[in-house]
Amino acid sequence: MDTNDSPTNPLTYWDYIATDQLFQLQKPLTDAHDEMQFIIVHQTFELWFKLAIYELRAAVDALDAEEIQRGVHLLKRVASILRTSLHGFEPLMTMSQQGYAEFRDALHPASGFQSSQFRVLEILLGIERVTTEGERVEERFYWENAVQAGHTFTNFMAKYHEDLVASYDNAKQRNVRALMLRLTEKATGRTGVEAYRYLLSNRDDYPLLMSLAEIGRDLQQAMLDFRLHHHKVTVFTVGEHAAGTSDAHKPGHPSCAAYLLGVIKDRSTIFPELEEALTGPAH
What we know:
two-stranded antiparallel ribbon; globular; mainly alpha; 63% helix; 2 strands
């Protein structure tokens, strides 16, 4: 018999969600007042990312089984989770550069760059590795081609790179971008951008696929919104031209905000075939 069902040992709220354990996970490195907020906000981000990944994997399974309605429902949930997480930036915007400066040196060289879960979200949505040219041709994640140096990058690679490559290999044909395109191609009898162009021209004939395309764009915007908010709070708390806590910026690329802005410019499109169908010339 499960002891939790016993009248003498009933299940409690605090045991069910492990509040005591959660409250032990905040361990500031300094006496700075704002550091507790900084830790809790970033822990909360990671919890939202964990939930988004959980739901995103279920959505991928649904789309792979051609259960489009369930897939759309779950993807809407992912978009809602990501947008909810954005509110975490609001308390950070109440922290001044002086307040952050009181503890930021203690964080060196840790960096939000090292969030592996955000990378997993990108992989499940359908980012492609970039083919490099040079002495040898190889595929790399886009963030490996950034101007990186030092312990921030090497520590992240040592801990997560192998798992991220495995996640990428497993998701090559089972990610949101690939499955959206596959389902649209199958239904329309066209390929690539032309499949989406046909869908958009005949939207009334494919209501579920149109809902899928719409939530795909909504997810794309939710990811962009997260990046934009991250950039905004970085400018506010660190400064537009200052390096962050990371040691991952070489002299030619010292600004944390500039790095984030570059990523926004280069990585805002997750579903390029759909975007081209929407914005490019019709044929």
